[in-house]
Amino acid sequence: MSNIKYTEDHEWIKVDGDTAWIGITTYARHALGDLVYIELPETGRQIAKGDDFAVVESVKAASEIYTPVTGEIVEVNDNLQDNMDDLKEDIDTGWIVKVKMTDDSEASALMDKAAYDSFVEGLE
Amino acid sequence: MKQTPLHSIHTGLNAKMAEFAGYDMPIQYSEGVMAEHNWTRESCGLFDVSHMGQITLEGEGVAEFLEKLTPSKISALKDGVAKYTVLTNEDGGMVDDLIVTRLSKDKFFAVINAGCKDKDIEWIKNHLPENITFHSFEDRALIAIQGPKTEETIRSVLGFDLSEQGYMRYSEAESDYGLLFISRLGYTGEDGFEISVPNEKAADLWNAFSANDNVKPVGLAARDSLRLEMGYPLYGHDIDATTSPIEADIAWIMGKMTNTGFIGAERVINEAQNGASRKRVGVKITGRGVAREGAEICTPDGQKIGELTSGGFSPTLQGAIGQGYIETKFATEGKEIVVRVRGRDIEAVIASLPFVEAKTKKPIKKAA
Fold first, then answer.
1. Which is higher by pLDDT, B254 or A88?
2. Distance, in angstroms, between B32 CA and closest chain A CA?
3. Distance of alpha carbon B283 from alpha carbon A52, whole angstroms
4. Contacts with B27 from chain A: Cβ below 8 Å
5. Residue B93: which residues within 8 A CB-CB, separation 6 or more?
6. pTM summary value
7. E-state strands within chain A
8. Nearest CA distance, A122 vs chain B (angstrom)
9. Domains within chain A, CATH numbers bracketed
10. pLDDT (average), residues A15-44
11. pLDDT at A104
């Protein structure tokens, strides 16, 4: 059984107990174009569902990344700043932050892989 | 939304399309901004700039009329010579920037910004002397072809040898694609041409260029990053109705300032003689991050001294750059500043423009 969930904003989250790993999907990465910089948050920051917690910069524009879950940022993937290519749909290296969730029903309400795939298909 | 005659070609190439100045324009094609930018610097980029306005002014005394509309010494231009200049308003600000080309003593061709087209036309018509005729070409597209391999590409595609046509020079030629107006200039800092072609032949000409291996299509996003590396201002962002040519640091368009009878001359000449309180400068980001239009420019101790009017990432320099206005007393090359982005101060320095050396062809001096 997969514990990876997806949002309509093209984030993926991996649920590991009460911790959520958050990253962006292949679709998002492609849509964002050539990324050159990521602005990361500090650990310890409280974020609520729908808040932006990071900003990615492409040649052309800045884009915010939103959290689908409420909680505290407990870890930040600083490695991304020097390795923007790692920012992708890869659970081990592509996560941006880990969030200790206060309400795990937020995560379970998100789309599973099959639902997300058909959501993306509907966009194309 | 309006469309250029090349619209279906862009959508056929799966370009990412978006509204620009009322037109549905290609922002980038499948390879993306970075690849398109670098391709233009290395080979040959093809741009649809048909959204821009193409106009002529004709009649006796047209050069003198243009010396009222612009601060440049238009009457000094020779046939077939193009000049970058601006339309000034009564306050010494700018209505638009444009390229003016002398076709003959009594006839000039000009290319104006898409977003300013209606406003410019109204402005010109409101000032138009009775004996001068204004014409706007609704039946012509404009294709820019830019990059170091442009001259050889044109030779191969059109069979024209343009090696004797210098920078900022204009020619006309009959071709398989109708009568072409060929200007050796552009908005990228590379050697290249802007080619005006009849609407009904535009797609054929585009496809003929595209079929050449040197050529790839380039969207408006890379057009913006290319011009930003050259420090060229973009109307509506880096220059507008409130900024004067002196503040914008383009006093060179006035030469020795022998034209003193233009609209808004009072402020412009006063600033030329006594200085302006703010100045457009280049900003090179030395810290981490990218700063965009609207970011505050501050001294390292936090005093606000200006604002960015453009900013982005330079593919050539692999770093962030921008331009903006700051108080003139701080406008010293190398001065350390910070730019404020989402509440965070990023280290930067005032830099001279252009950021990347221009590779435009030198004017060709003909033997007398």
1. B254
2. 6
3. 28
4. 60
5. B240, B241, B242, B243, B244, B264
6. 0.94
7. 4-6, 11-16, 19-24, 35-39, 46-47, 52-58, 62-66, 71-76, 97-101
8. 17
9. 4-123 (2.40.50.100)
10. 93
11. 82
The continuous run of DSSP H or E covering B8 comes out as: helix B7-12
* Average pLDDT value for residue range B157-181: 97
Average pLDDT (B59-81) is 98
Identify residue A43 by its one-letter amino acid code. T
Amino acid of residue B310:
S
Which stretches within B47-86 are classed as H helix? 62-69
In angstroms, rounded to a whole number, what is the distance separating the alpha carbons of residues B329 and B278? 8
Q: Which residue of A has its CA nearest to B313?
A: A59
Average pLDDT score over residue span B345-354: 97
pLDDT of residue A106: 93
Residues of A with Cβ-Cβ distance to B290 under 8 angstroms: 36-37, 57, 62
Third-level CATH fold of B277-351: Elongation Factor Tu (Ef-tu); domain 3 (2.40.30)
Sequence-distant (6+) residues with CB within 8 A of B67 are B73, B74, B75, B259, B261, B262
List, for residues B239-277, the tens digit of each pLDDT value: 999 999 999 999 999 999 999 999 999 999 999 999 999
- Residues paired with residue B297 on neighbouring β-strands, in sequence order: B306, B339
ipTM of this complex prediction, to 2 decimal places: 0.86
Tokens linked to A110: 């998100």
The tokens for B247 are 């503040």
Give the contacts of A85 (CB within 8 A, at least 6 positions apart).
Answer: none
Residue with tokens 């590396």: B229
- How many whole angstroms separate alpha carbon B66 and alpha carbon B58? 11
State the amino acid at position B153 in one-letter form.
T
**Alpha helices (runs of H) in B112-190, residue ranges in sequence order:** 117-127, 150-158
> How many beta-carbon contacts under 8 Å exist across A and B?
45
Mean pLDDT over A42-51 rounds to 96
- Tell me, what's the pLDDT at B63? 98
Where residue B368 falls among pLDDT bands split at 50, 70, 90? very low
Beta sheet of B140-146, edge-to-edge order = B170-175, B178-183, B192-198, B140-146, B44-48, B215-217
> Residue B366 has what pLDDT?
57
- Residue of chain A minimizing CA distance to B223: A60
Which positions in chain A touch B28 (Cβ < 8 Å)?
33, 60
Q: Domain coordinates of chain B in residue numbers?
A: 277-351
Q: Cα–Cα distance between B132 and A80 in angstroms, integer?
A: 61
Chain A residues inside the 8 Å CB shell of B292: 61-62
